[in-house]
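RECORD TYPE: inverse folding
INPUT: C-alpha cells
STRUCTURE:
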C-alpha cells in the first residue's frame, strides 16, 4: 500500500529525503524495522508514551520497491535531552543492525542518517527554549553529537529489546506501544489526555 503524503513528510510538511539503500528488499525492510524499534524502545526506556511504531513498504513505478517507517511518541512531560536522544536512536539502531548482520559499508551507514529526525529534535527543543546545535555546542545547550552519544549508550543497553521489537515489527508491520511494552517488559505510560 502506497503511504500517504503525510507518512512521507517531515514534521514541517516537507517531503523527507528519499535515499537509495543498496540492500535487498528483505534487508532494507528489516533495517527500517530496527530504525523504528530504536525510536520506540528508547522512548519507552525514557518514560515516554509510544502510540505505534511501524514499517511501511510499497511498490514503486517500474516495479521497484520502497520502505519507510514511523513511530508516534507522546513526549509531553519528557526530559528535552532524552526526547532528542530518542530522535537519534533510530539511525543508531539501524546502523547497529547493519554492523551485526555484516552489511555495514560507509555508504549504507550514511544512507541511515534520517536528517528529518535530527531536524525534528532541533525544532521541538527550540520550541521549549532548549538549544540543540547541529554541528556545534551552543551556549547553554548540547550538540547533536552529544545527543547521539546519549542515544548510543541507550541503544547498546537496550539492544536485546530493540532486536525483539524489530523482528516482531518486520513480521506484523505495525506494533502498538502496549504491544512493544509487552515484548520488552518496559512500561508504556498512559497517554496524557485520555485514550490514545
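DESIGNED SEQUENCE:
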Amino acid at each position: 500500500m502506497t503511504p500517504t503524503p503525510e507518512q512521507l513528510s517531515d514534521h514541517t510538511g516537507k517531503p523527507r529525503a528519499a535515499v537509495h539503500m543498496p540492500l535487498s528488499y528483505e534487508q532494507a525492510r528489516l533495517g527500517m524495522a530496527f530504525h523504528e524499534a530504536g525510536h520506540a524502545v528508547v522512548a519507552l526506556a525514557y518514560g515516554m508514551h509510544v502510540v505505534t511504531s511501524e514499517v511501511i513498504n510499497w511498490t514503486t513505478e517500474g516495479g521497484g520497491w520502497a520502505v519507510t517507517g514511523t513511530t508516534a511518541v507522546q513526549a509531553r512531560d519528557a526530559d528535552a535531552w532524552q526526547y532528542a536522544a530518542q530522535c537519534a536512536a533510530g539511525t543508531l539502531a539501524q546502523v547497529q543492525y547493519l554492523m551485526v548482520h555484516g552489511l555495514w559499508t560507509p555508504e549504507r551507514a550514511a544512507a541511515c542518517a534520517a536528517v528529518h529526525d535530527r531536524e525534528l529534535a532541533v525544532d521541538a527543543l527550540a520550541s521549549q527554549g532548549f538549544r540543540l546545535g547541529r554541528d556545534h555546542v551552543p551556549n547553554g545547550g548540547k550538540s547533536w553529537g552529544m545527543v547521539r552519544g546519549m542515544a548510543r549508550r541507550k541503544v547498546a543497553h537496550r539492544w536485546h529489546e530493540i532486536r525483539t521489537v524489530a523482528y516482531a515489527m518486520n513480521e506484523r508491520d505495525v506494533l502498538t506501544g502496549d504491544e512493544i511494552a509487552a515484548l520488552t517488559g518496559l512500561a508504556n505510560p498512559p497517554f496524557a489526555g485520555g485514550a490514545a
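NOTES: The chain has a mean pLDDT of 92.
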